[in-house]
Amino acid sequence: MDLTHDGFELLVRGVRPTNAYEETMQRLLQSVRLGLISPGSRLPAERELAAMLKVSRDTVRDALATLAEAGYVVSRRGRYGGTFVVDELPRDSALGTLPLALGAEEVEDLAPLRRVLEVGAAREAAARELSAEERQALGSALEECAAADDTQHRRLDSRLHLLIAELSGSPSLVPLIANLRTRVNALLDGIPMLRPNLAHSNAQHEAIVTAILMGRPESAAEAMLEHVEGSTALLRGFFSNPS
Hints:
By secondary structure, the protein is mainly alpha-helical. It is built from 10 helices and 2 strands; from the N terminus they run ααααββαααααα.
């Protein structure tokens, strides 16, 4: 396998360490779904992928395990073992009924909107002097989201984001974020519920809330931007349009 071939452009481009898992998923999913790594082909070894993507082997291992769970790759043991792309890719069953082209357009439309609205909301919330009741509500929303099972996570995730919008001090921002979260959730509902991604999301939520409670606007904005870009990278991986 020629790892320097142009077909591996998406695969070999390094990812940012802040969203390592999500962007590793994006690179690998795009490479598989766009046919840059053909069905039946063996992927490079974990250590090679880690070096190519400039991430840890644990990150690569998590991403490959998720791809296996979603039905895109399979692991084989033995002398000629390794991780292989399945012979027949899933027929986008994980993507629900939203056409891929429309899904990809929606991801790209939402990305700058989220950077403006959600990052701005986090910054404004951190700049305000929150009451004891507001601080308690924010802490409780974070804890409940982190403890949620798969059936409740999306709802409690949205509630946390809406509360941050409310704490920004602009009542007009809340319905805008509500509409935004509805559109984001429609995309997220079309991909598998990925356990490593949920763990990363919860850690990012904690960083956002901590910065807000400590009154650090720029830290809150940076943490929210990391969160937004992580989920955007993951959605790009699933909704990239195969040729």
